[in-house]
Write a structure and sequence with these properties.
The chain has 194 residues and is an all-alpha fold. The chain is built from eight helices and no strands.
Amino acid sequence: MTDSLSRLATYDRALYRSVARLPTPVLDEPLRRVSDIADFSKPWFLVAGALALFGGRRGRQAAFAGVTAIGAASLVANQLLKKTVGESRRPDRGGLGVPVQRWVRMPSSGSFPSGHSASAAAFAVAVGDVIPALGPALRGAASVVAFSRVYTGVHYPSDVLVGVTVGALFGRLAARLTLRRRPPHQPDEKEHTS
């Protein structure tokens, strides 16, 4: 078991170093901004607010599912898992070769799992399940947030992968519970025959 974990840790750091070596300075500023903006799930709450205000009944359902998913995923990722695993050490950005121009503020909490990634995936999956037309854009945005956490050097890839998995599970659950509680409006038979 310890050999397997050691091997996984080796692969994790190798992938982290590969991302650090990407010759993509044009992405440094945009991904730093994305990583900072995603603090406290700000973009997801803004989207939820817009959906609740302008999206009608389906938009309110999606906003409810998305915010519920964020709450559950954040609780599990940031409280239960981080405390169960213990204070996992953050990456040594300098020692592992992340260029300084990519750096964002290093969080004081443990590294495993990524709370940003959990919240982003939770919201994207929940809202995408309620309003499928929004799924691709939200999943794309969530993927950028998740990648930015490795790119800026604050998380290992495994932190992000587990965060995304936790978030996706709670996103799916929140959407199912929301739709089961209040199924989307179905036209009645008179509307079909007219």
